[in-house]
Amino acid sequence: MAPAALPLTFAGRPGWAVLGVVGLGTLLWYGATRERAPAVPRTETDTQTKTCDRPWTVRVHAQGNDCGGTSSSTIGAPPIVKTSAPVTHAEGIALSNATWALLNKHQQAIRVQSKTKLERYINSNPPLGQRSFPASDRSGGKRMDIDNYGCSPNFPV
Fold first, then answer.
1. DSSP per position, 81-139
2. I need a surface site. Which of 40, 82, 106, 138 has the fewest CB within 10 A?
3. pTM score > 0.85 for this model?
4. Region entry Disordered: which residue ranges (predicted)?
5. What is the DSSP letter of 34?
6. How far is CA 79 from CA 82, 134, 140, in A?
7. Cα(152)–Cα(156) distance, integer angstroms
8. Reduced to 3 states, what is the DSSP secondary structure of residue 16?
9. Quick check: 115 and 100 in contact, CB under 8 A?
10. What is the pLDDT of residues 116-157, one digit of tens each?
11. Residue 11 and residue 22: Cα distance in Å, rounded?
12. How far is CA 76 from the centre of its chain?
């Protein structure tokens, strides 16, 4: 309320009436200036305008003691890296076959089941991430792995 209007209270009833009008005007003015703009709802579609700098990448490799190790030593074809579109089913299966060709006959015999599961996985339109497929002989960490990364899922239909 305007402090300058307080002396009006000494004028009796008319002063109190003026003070009431000034007080009401102050409250209305304060309320009008505190009015907020309506919130604009944000949807998930707002994020689709941003670009993703991560390329689509798929890597298939064999791991295990018979391949040189289970942590960093692996046998695998070079990964597929694409910047314009996701990796296709055919490219994923071709990468699996290229890795398979790098294995010797003994390593292949152990991993027949894991290769079949890996190719079935590629054809199922999987989400991004890593996945392992254990071999029939699981000793020594023998398996086939796929690393699947990008801005959106690889292997589109």
1. EESSSPPPHHHHHHHHHHHHHHS-HHHHHHTHHHHHHHHHHHTT-PPSEEEEEE-SS-G
2. 40
3. no
4. 122-147
5. T
6. 10, 20, 24
7. 9
8. helix
9. yes
10. 999 999 999 899 999 999 998 888 889 999 999 998 899 987
11. 15
12. 27
Please tell me the distance from the alpha carbon of residue 75 to that of residue 102, in angstroms, as a whole number. 7
Q: Model confidence over 71-107: pLDDT tens digits?
A: 656 788 999 999 889 999 999 999 999 999 999 999 9
Q: What is the DSSP string of 50-97?
A: S---PPEEEEEEEEBGGGTBSSS--EEPPPEEESSSPPPHHHHHHHHH
**Tokens in use for 96?**
């699996």
The phi-psi region of residue 97 (left if phi > 0; otherwise alpha if psi is between -120 and 50; otherwise beta) is: alpha
